[in-house]
Amino acid sequence: MTTNIPRMRFPAQALAELKQADPQTPVTLNLIRSLIRRGVIPCIEVGRGKLLNYDDLLDYLAAAPTGPQPTTAGIRRIPE
Q1: Pairing outcome for strands 43-46 and 49-53
Q2: What's the whole-model pTM score?
């Protein structure tokens, strides 16, 4: 019986491993942290840090939509 142990990494560790596999990657630490903040990549809080499943990150990057993304409505007027 073989069990797959998830490859849990802190965001900086995930980025280092990604850059080792692809030195020209445009992925940044800010992007990884943003994905965690938005809940796109699930994480586990450990003290003040957050652990993410490295394979989930790779799956998201492989399946991320390409092309134009919907934009926000922009700046809204505040009633006076």
Answers
A1: antiparallel
A2: 0.74
Q: Which ranges of 5-46 does DSSP label H, i.e. alpha helix? A: 11-21, 29-37
CA 45 to chain centre: 15
State which amino acid sits at residue 80.
Answer: E
Q: What is the DSSP letter of 27?
A: -
Q: Identify the bridge partners of residue 53 per DSSP, sorted by sequence position.
A: 8
Nearest to 57 by CA among 29, 32, 21: 32
Q: How many CA atoms lie within 13 A of 26 on its CB side?
A: 1
Residue with tokens 């596999």: 21
Share of the chain above pLDDT 90, in %: 70
- 35-47, pLDDT tens digit by residue? 999 999 999 999 9
